[in-house]
Amino acid sequence: MAWGTVPVAEMKQRQGRRLHQFLARRVYPYSPFYRRLLDEHDINPDSIRRLEDLRRIPFTTKADIVPSKDNPDRYREIVLQPSPKQIRADLTLTDVIALWAKSKIFVRSIQDQLLDEYLPIHLTFTTGRTSMPTPFVYTARDMQLLKEAGRRLFSLVGLERTRDRGLNAMPFAPHLAFWQVQQAAAAVGLLVLHSGGGRVIGSEALLRLGERTAPTFLVGTPGYIMHLAHLAEDLGIRITKVRKIILGAERVGPEYKAKLREQMARIGSPDTQIHNVYGFTEAKRAWVETADAADSRFATYPDMEIFEIVDPETGEPVPEGEPGEIVYTQLSGAGSVVLRYRTGDRVREGLIYDRCPHSGLILPLLGTGLYRVSEIKKVKETLVDFNEMFAFFNARPEILEWQIVLHKPAGQEHGRDQIKLRVSLGDGVDPAVFEPAIRREFKALTEVGLDGVEYYARAELSELLGLDTKPKEARFVDERPR
Predict the structure, then answer these.
(1) Other residues' Cβ atoms within 10 Å of the Cβ of residue 440
(2) pTM of the predicted protein model
(3) What gap in Å lies between CA 351 and CA 362, rounded to an integer?
(4) What would the CATH number be for the domain defined by 375-478?
(5) What is the domain partition of the chain in residue ranges?
(6) What sign has the CA pseudo-torsion 385, 171, 365, 337?
(7) Kindly report the CA angle at 40 between 38 and 42, in degrees rounded to 5?
(8) Per-residue model confidence as pLDDT tens digits over 156-200
(9) How far is CA 20 from CA 13, 24, 170, in A?
(10) What is the phi-psi region of residue 450: left when phi exceeds 0, alpha when psi lies from -120 to 50, beta otherwise?
């Protein structure tokens, strides 16, 4: 049955069966890390047969897989590593018949089919903001799954091969975001200019190409797409046919979407729909919200994965729809494989198994109110949720660009933390009116005050943010001594 058509009860049963097969036949025999983990906890993989059994497996965390100076190859422990002898021994008669049939139909040898399944051919990396970048390994089979996830993603956005052409402004790098878009376009057969973003060809050149190619959809990070829209207005460049924008790396709320729509209207695209995408390196794929609507959710792939939402403190699963931490388990593929991976991402609306009111698909649907634990920082002896600042600053129509800088007073390495706001304001905004209001509202939001507000032209602040030079804009700069 096709993706999104399986009734919920049957879907959960299928996930349980797939979990059992994947764990017993792939992960336990071929993953050094998970074989050791299950043995240490006396878990027989054959006893994991239902979705509910998954919670018996211990969590995996970033610390389990991230490389270190003492163990730079730790990431290899979660890569499936069967020997040729193991593969031959584990093949069932059904497997052999299927491989033989495919060898005749596709004129591809059985050996090549097995290499497609297990031989690494591609790498992506975590960003490494708080630790060494971690490689994640893809096989040819994983690339097929990445492509299929991309096909579903573009389908949900409503992109059509005979109607649409795109401009991919995601930074060119060995990161999931760029490659998910590239594979999605290949899967659907869409014409897409994979520009690599401002770091590769420069923002003005990118806009000139956009003016000539007339894209109907754009893909990029929220800050960079907004930057392009403002720069196009400054340069008098008209981008007139954009009907869809796909935003990744950072989630944005309805207020920011409204600002971006207004800016797109100024350069000639007045009827633009905006979709957020959620993804993380460890999953090796990404998901899109099903509509540009307040009640939309991320559509997931139950044939490829299992999502759990757990209480961050106890680790116990929470009821459907309740908030908690996102835990991720793969059900397919090879290369790097994670089970019950604690993402550190939290969601306010939780996970539900239901029919999506926008797409009509029956799926596990993940809420879009996501935030990262890593963005909760201690400042001035107070825990400050920097996730809230995205919505706070992005929602304000008078702000064009912004950046928060954490630092210590000059010459006082052990002095009290300082918070500085760098900001670019729209035309006609009076700083004398803006500043008292922003100080008051910031204090109410965070319980700590701003120690300074610095004003910049939009181009100057865009440079400080690294919109043309960095893979991800530097919204928060921590200059405090380590």
Answers:
(1) 12
(2) 0.87
(3) 13
(4) 3.30.300.30
(5) 375-478
(6) negative
(7) 65
(8) 999 999 999 999 999 888 899 999 999 999 999 999 999 888 788
(9) 11, 6, 37
(10) beta
